[in-house]
Amino acid sequence: MVIESLPLMKYSSPFYPFGGIGVFYDFFGIDFSIVHVINHGVAWGFLASWQDYLPFVRIALIIGLALYLGKTRLFFKHSICFAAILTGAVCNVVDYFLYGHVVDMLFVRFWGYAYPIFNIADSAIFCGVVGVGISSFTKKPKALSST
């Protein structure tokens, strides 16, 4: 949460549109910059017209996931993945209550394709979901016998 909040604290006013701070340009065909985009919806502005209801849905999902994690005995790799999802979701809710919207800031262009702007919390959620998906297909360790 701290990693995502630091740039927001320092650069709370919007950058000039389509400008931002260039981190690198044409690094093996990839461009990366830090920008300031206001997102009233979920991923990439989806459901932006539901802005008044999204905080409650997000909080309900966070509580549900936290209860699931508390009641379920998960393997360590699943716990890490769900913790990443939970942390990303909490960061986005904190953004909403601090700024009235989620701030997206990372802009990447892959070989001419401009990927939708996202933030570090979105990355944590994505990595957690991918991790859960991959680990659900891997062989699980055998449970220890109680006898």
Write a structural description:
This protein is of the alpha+beta class. The protein has a domain of 96 residues. Helices cover 47% and strands 19% of the residues. It has a 4-stranded antiparallel beta sheet with strand order 1-2-3-4. A hairpin with a 2-residue loop joins strand 1 and strand 2. The longest helix has 24 residues.
Protein structure class = alpha+beta
Largest sheet: 4 strands, antiparallel
Number of strands: 4
General form: flat
**Helix and strand sequence:** HEEHHEEH
Roughly what percent helix?
Answer: 40-55%
What is the strand content?
15-25%
| N/C terminus separation | 43 Å
Radius of gyration: 18 Å
Could you tell me the mean pLDDT?
A: 77
SSE diagram, text form:
Elements: H1 2-10, E1 21-27, E2 30-39, H2 54-71, H3 76-99, E3 102-110, E4 113-114, H4 120-137
Helix pairs in contact: 2-3, 3-4
Defining traits:
flat; 4 strands; alpha+beta; 4 helices; about 150 residues; four-stranded antiparallel β-sheet; about 45% helix; single chain; about 20% strand
Short characterization:
The protein has 147 residues and is α+β, with helices and mostly antiparallel strands. It contains 4 helices and 4 strands; from the N terminus they run H-E-E-H-H-E-E-H. It has a domain at 1-10 and 49-134.
